[in-house]
Amino acid sequence: MPFWHFLYRCPECGKDPVLGDEDAVHCPECAAAFERGKDGAIRILRSGHPPEVRTAASLGHQIEALGGPIPRAVTENGEVQYRSRAVLRRVLREVPLRYRGKLKGFFEVHEEPEEGLLELSDETLTFHPGEGKEQLRWSLIDLRSIQTSSGSVQITPPELEAAVFYFPEDSPRRWEQLLFYAVRRARERAEEEGGMEELQSRTPSR
Amino acid sequence: MSLYYHTGRLLALTVVPVLARVRVEDAHHIPDQGPFLILSNHQSALDPLCIQTRTRRIVHSMTKSTQFSKPFFRWLLPRLRAFPTRRYKVDPHAVRVTLRLLGAGEGVCIYAEGERTWTGELQPLRSGTIRVALKAGVPVIPCGISGAFRSRPRWSGTFRRTDVLVRFGEPIHFGAHDDRAERERALPGARARLEGALRELTT
Asked: Do the chains contact at B178 and A206, CB–CB below 8 Å?
């Protein structure tokens, strides 16, 4: 997973997006460069300054303090508006996994990847596939789970087992945080009862 | 029959030292017999190897279902006592398998945060996992892994050899909460206790 999936925004000056490759990120605004240092720490290189070593946690918190992905995704009117190129893989079916005659669980089989554009607004999440294909639109308050899985974001919309999005030019962490934010707002507007503790499937235990 | 498991463990015991210097503390908290549920933090892809190679007992691991999508892993993982959970939905079958294994006196490991950390810090624990612990009523052994994040953070493609410390905490006995309402009442306290234990066990 490339480094910019984590540092999708400059923790120093807040520039969003940054330029990045597999192991380093550069800020086009303040010219700071970030690279993986020793022991999972991150080295910050600034022209004319000695390198500084920081933990991933501290830089993550710094990005959160700057508003994370929200400032770039929210317009002056306070509306959420964000889109990225995305590759969708829908879960086609779930297959039982047996071992020594016992059912161990289920795993999913995906459809062929579909390229398109994923667009987030105040109320909906829309996937625009290529020409001639029908777009998919889901109300945010109908999403039942959102989470990152390796380099992708998995969501559970109505009518689908699950949809997995890969972002060739964007960060799945950004999208996860943004979706949490937008869903929370949409639920507040809809005056859904109860707070949103976690947007993950509740696992029944009886 | 656990030939594959033990062969895999021997292989991992030769591979893991190349990737990390693993030290284990207080593995004696894992009972010699009877069921136990390990609830661990999740720092890197090394974690299952660290836990399964350093415990005397066989440990079944709840593993995300996407890991089973490739035929090779679909063949291998069940032999290494991994079973799938679909994280994108309610997966009662994963709960059933967990309870069945525990009911048969086996050991199960669940990564309580539900995914690897992005920053090295402990993430909120998933409510579903705590509910399973409350339902099961078996000794819950918190396990804190430190240093694996430094070896290979989620956002990096390469391993670097570092020190990894795996610490097992004292078993927590929540007791069996068969009634759903009772489980819901016990949930906040159990969450706080587990989070506290995992924070203490990680450096």
From this structure: yes
